[in-house]
Structures are given as structure tokens and as C-alpha cells.
Amino acid sequence: MRDQAVVTVREVVEETPSVVTLHLDRVFRFDPGQFVMVWVPGVDEIPMALSSADSISVQRVGDATAALADMRPAARIGLRGPFGRGFPPGDDLLAIAGGIGAAPLLPLAATGRVKTFLLGARTAAELPFRERLAAGTDLRLATDDGTAGLPGYVADLLDEVDPGDYTAICVCGPEPMMAAVLERLARAGALGRAFFSLHRYMKCGVGVCGSCAIDPDGLCVCRDGPVFPGPIVARSELGRHTRDACGVRVPFERTG
Fold first, then answer.
1. pTM value > 0.85
2. Does the pLDDT value for residue 218 go beyond 60?
3. 3-83 fold
4. Domain 93-250 is found in CATH 3.40.50.80
5. Which residues partner with 108 through β-bridges?
6. What is the pLDDT of residue 1?
7. pLDDT by residue (tens digit) across 149-178?
8. Residue 134: CB partners within 8 Å, gap ≥ 6?
9. What distance in Å separates the CA atoms of residue 69 and residue 43, rounded to the nearest whole number?
10. pLDDT tens-place string over residues 38-70
11. How far is the C-alpha of 121 from the C-alpha of 12, rounded, in Å?
12. What is the mean pLDDT of residues 15-38?
């Protein structure tokens, strides 16, 4: 269903010191990985993945997300969607997430389709959804500072699993982290079963304005994604640059 509505925040749950989940008074029919355009009155409209049928999970990274994170029950926001293509159907999935990138993968885990979940963050306190993921998946953790799980990056956890044991591999997180995962899966010959959720600046959300187009194919993340197969991602701009609101290329430092 693609719709637009004004919804009310029913409950606010703190997931980590920087991440909150806003539970809404409306239930959406969606495929895991699809997104909605969230209008914050007086601030901005931004794309956000649904973390459940009635919730979005927010990390403070800018004006709009800070405004959302500060909301309390009874606050009202506008939503359009759901839009885009989600993760593939199937069971025995491997999910790989960095920080808030776990949000669009959480609905997959809730269905029991995820066999193993690799989750990373800078520190133990910033690992979201740990209890829910551990209850339904083989959850493996990595933290930059070593306070939980493997000391290092989430991509390093791929040394502990065989990508061939899974029907599909679903990835979401910061672009440098996804670029590191992409390289690992390419070396393992597993790109053909991998799917990546990309993030780009969006204005319309339906593929009209072209602000979220990616090189070299000109695909729109909002319409043709946000989830793309590994081979398409491998030849895209992922890991090379992102773009600002004006479409100007912005390089970033590589991390795992």
C-alpha cells in the first residue's frame, strides 16, 4: 500500500543512547526493507525504513532525526509510503548490520527467516535490538572498542560463517561498512546471493526528481531500490562516494 497520512506517536522506546523507536497509531503493510517518507513539521521530510509494521527507529544524525528522537507520545508526523523494493523472500538468511542499519533487517528477524545475524557498532551500548535479535537468531556481535563480542568491525564476523550456508545475505549499515562487506563477499564468490540496502538523499521518494540516482546505471534508490542485488552494487558508486542535497559527490573515509 502506498498512502499518505498524519499519524500520532503512541510510544517512544529508547533502544540505545542515540537510537529511539517511535511506535505509531497506524499499522502499515510492507515488505521488510521498504521505506516511508517522514515529514517532520517545520523541519524536513526524510526517508526512513520501517522497523516494524507500526514503528520507525531513529538515530540522531541531523535536524530532522534529532527532532524525531525528541518527540514524545501524542506528537504528530506525516508519512508517505511504503515505497521501494525490499529484501528478497526466502528462509535461512544471513543478515549483516551496522548500528541503526539493523532497523530494516529487524522485521526479517521477527518472521524467523534470519538464521544468523551479524551486528556491529562502535561500543556495546550502541548495539540496537540485542535482546529481540538474540531471541530469534544466532546473533554474533562486533564492537570497535571490544566491549561486546569480537573486537573490530562487523565485516570481520564473516570469518566465522560460510556465506554458502545461506539462501541470501541481507546487508544494511553505514556505506563504509557495507563497502567492506561487499569486498569480503566478492572474495568469497557470494555476491550473487547478496542484497544491500542503499541510502541516498531523497526528495520525492518515487523516482521522479532523480536526486537519489546512482552511478553508473542511473538507477533511483527510491524506486529501483533501496535494496539492490550484489552485482549491481558492486559496479555502483558505493564505497567510492555519496552525494549531498545538491547531488555533489562527497567522498568518505573507509572503515569496516
1. yes
2. yes
3. Elongation Factor Tu (Ef-tu); domain 3 (2.40.30)
4. yes
5. none
6. 42
7. 999 999 999 999 999 999 999 999 999 999
8. none
9. 13
10. 999 999 999 999 999 999 999 999 999 999 999
11. 22
12. 96
Neighbours of 39 (CB within 10 A): 18
Name every residue whose Cβ is closer than 8 Å to that of residue 158 and which is 6 or more positions away in sequence. Answer: 96, 118, 181, 184, 185, 188
Answer whether 176's CB lies under 8 Å from 252's CB: yes
Instruction: Write out the three cell numbers for 99.
Output: 548500528
Note whether 3-83 and 93-250 share their fold.
no
Tell me how far CA of residue 188 lies from CA of 59, 142, 182, 191, in angstroms.
Answer: 32, 20, 10, 8
Q: Which three cell numbers stand for residue 10?
A: 503512541
**What is the H or E stretch that residue 138 is in?**
strand 138-143
E strand or H helix that includes residue 64: helix 63-69
| Angstrom distance (rounded) from CA 167 to CA 209 | 35
Report d(CA 14, CA 69) in Å as an integer. 9
